[in-house]
Amino acid sequence: MRTPPHLHIALCCLLLAWMLLPGNTNPVRAQAPLPNSMAAAGDSLTSAMGSGPRYFADNTGYSWATGSNPAVNSLALRLATRNPALSGNVYNLARMGARMGDLSAQMGTVNAIKAEYVAILVGGNDACAPAEAAMTPVETFRQQFDTALARLAEGSPGARVLVLSIPDPIQLWALYRDNRSAVAIWTLFDVCPTALARPRSDAPEDAARRERVRQRVADYNRQLAEVCARYSQCRHDGGAVFNTRLEPADVSPYDYFHLSARGQARLAEVAWAVSGFGP
After folding, report:
1. Is 124:195 a contact under the CB 8 Å cutoff?
2. CB crowding 176-206: b at 16 or more within 10 Å, else e
3. Among 212, 246, 223, which Cα is nearest to 127's?
4. For 219-254, how does the pLDDT look when each residue is reduced to its tens digit (9 = 90+)?
5. Residue-range domains of the chain with CATH
6. Mean pLDDT of 142-147
């Protein structure tokens, strides 16, 4: 039996109305367009110091952001599998010892090379100062970050940005405070003294110092999130890196401070998960 035309039209209207009810909508999210070029900015964590065969030197092939080593499976490698045009257009601008005040100059270089995608991890050295008094003030940190993003937005208005939170340096103290090699290296090379000085001491003043340093990093991370939110092209990791729990195998045995190749791979995985490009 054929359905009368007027009933057929009514049924179609009812079906359309049902599909448009709030509980029955299923919007499809548009995949962000893949970049054809990429730059990474920051400090020695992004230049992968201590992560590869070069002793106490940059190993950018192992970088979480731009590395070419398959074992790390960097952000750039993951993007290049989806967009081969990215290969050969990847730049690592990170510099050992860089602080937030250096980021604006790095953004100037990004503008010069016209990178379409920028990954940023910087700020650890602002907390890892020779003394607490030398740590970058929180408001200064915020202003410097805002200046850097403003420079990028002006010179490369179409560039998208991924900002990772600063790792928690007190994790390293908890992992290695009883390791004789780590303590010896931290002391000999004066590694992040605000967080790692006198690592075996449980004196109230040392415990309080470590907590203040950890709080300063948390304050920095809040500034990163707030400033990033002011720029439409900027994406923040929501604290994912800060909250990632390190294991001993993630840390370089050279200085017990930087990441090993496995640590870089874990950082790449976290970055991919928050990038907006992942599954």
Report:
1. no
2. bbeeeebbebbeeeebbbbbbbbbeeeeeee
3. 212
4. 999 999 999 999 999 999 999 999 999 999 999 999
5. 33-274 (3.40.50.1110)
6. 98
Q: Which residues touch 186 (CB under 8 Å, ≥6 apart)?
A: 192, 196, 197, 199, 256, 257
Contact (CB, 8 A) for 117 and 41: no
Work out the percent of the chain whose per-residue pLDDT is above 90: 85
CA dist 229 and 180 (Å) reads: 43
User: In angstroms, what CA-CA distances link 89 with 79, 169, 206?
Assistant: 12, 32, 46
| Count of C-beta atoms within a 10 Å radius of residue 225 | 16
List Cβ neighbours of 72 (8 Å cut-off, separation of 6 or more).
Answer: 51, 62, 63, 64, 261, 264, 265, 268
What is the model's pLDDT at position 31?
A: 59
Q: Report the DSSP pairing between strands 160-163 and 234-236.
A: parallel
Give residue 269's identity as a one-letter amino acid code: E
Q: Six-digit token pair at 236?
A: 């923040």
| pLDDT for the residue numbered 54 | 80
Please answer whether residues 77 and 269 qualify as being in contact, where contact means their C-beta atoms are separated by less than 8 angstroms: no
Task: Kindly report, residue by residue over 59-117, the tens digit of the pLDDT.
Answer: 999 999 999 999 999 999 999 999 999 999 999 999 999 999 999 999 999 999 999 99
The pair of structure tokens assigned to 206 is 């040392």
